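Researcher: Hi, I'm a grad student and pretty new to this. My advisor asked me to get structures for two proteins we've been looking at. I'm not sure of the right format, so I'll just paste the first sequence and hope you can take it from there.
Model: That works fine. Here's the first sequence with its structure tokens right after it:
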Amino acid sequence: MVTPHGESRYEQSLQRDIALLKRKTKEMAMLDEGGLRNAILALMSRDRQLAYTVILRDRCVDDLEIELDRLCLEFLVRQQPVAIHLRFVFATIKIIRELERIGDYAESIARQVLDLLPMQPIPPLDDFLELADVAISMFHDCVEAFLENDVEKARRLMVKEDIADEMRNAINAKLIKWQEEGQLALEAMAPLMTVARRLERTTDQAKNICEEVIYMSTGQFIKHRHSDLFRILFVDADNSSLSQMAEAIGRAQSIGHFAFSSAGLEPAGEIKPAVRRYLLERGFDLEGYEPKDFSVFLDTLPVDIIVALNTKVRKRIPAHFSNCVVFEWPISDPAEEGGSAETIVERFDQAYTEISQHLRDLVQAIIGHDQYRSGLNQ
């Protein structure tokens, strides 16, 4: 049915739902921006009460994230969008995740302020204010680009991320110098570096929002335009066995344009001796292979695919990785049980074969059979 204004009821309903999603997204972004501003103000003025306020108001951001998730799902079901409207809701889902992270950064900065309050000496922190101005203004403008569907603004804003990187590096160098000269308490180094990292990471998330604006408007994927690497992370409980085997197998195949890493939810102190012995006997070079903490990948290292090596690990993969594809490979750990030397070797051989087959199938699914064969040892 067409309304007196020439619009169908479907079009009216569609535009109403789009307006609601944009309004709620703007509300969430404004909470984030206010949290960042207040967190930096608390840092500069050493205001404990304001820091508490930032931490407590992060719950409002979390509530809006839940509401927006529901609205996006309802939009998909009710409107069954296609083309640009489908890209809009997909981009909105991604942007919600970026906004949730930025809210967490504001809370983290506020918590660092609480840690810093009793510490002396702490020199003037004007450089942090300058970095905050860059980060917050970029964040504010990228949200505007999303709300206004402004592709050119999004493209212009993306260069600011490099500026923030340089500013953070300069701050870290200055903090080290101050500490060496006795102008900064040693225990204040980690909290202040965390503040600088959170501000710089805000520009990373803002850049991601810009990329989603470009995708939403043009259908162009640019997230990996400057990188031809496809990053796969293998995860198990402690990164002492199967995940190390999977990383070693992946790296040894030298598949062009793929990077393999591994980590553990609660990393062990060392790789299990039986695992290390088996891989060395098969000719793997294990220099630099040590258990790594999965939490490192939460905030700093890019990942495209996560492979959980058992069901328990899969259930513990946090929501931070909602933008990644997560697979589960249910492979038994050959180092967990005893038995004769021959039996143990058979279990390792079986695990090795299963990992190799899974990996081959996954890579072929990504790039195709012919490209997989030609990509080996590139």
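Researcher: Oh nice, that was easy. Here's the second one.
Model: And its structure:
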Amino acid sequence: MPNTMEGIKERINESKGQPVLITAQLGRHRMKKQRGVIAETYPAIFVVKLAPESALGTMDCVSYTYTDILTKEIAVDFLAAETEE
């Protein structure tokens, strides 16, 4: 992942529609991992539509700021697109 704000925004914009694994730091050595797809990108945030197994109750989308990536509050791993047969 790039280490500048513009580089991060560009990488996320290019990856719109791709599956990702988000690892969020919750503090005190706790982490939360969620799978989803980058659904929308905006100037300050991006939205991830969660996979059914990662959805938290009724919440099926989460949003993060590009600053979250820059400050390492979250890590975004891009997954290979699953092909349907």
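Researcher: Is there anything I should tell my advisor about the second?
Model: You could mention this: The CA atoms of residues 45 and 65 lie 4 Å apart.
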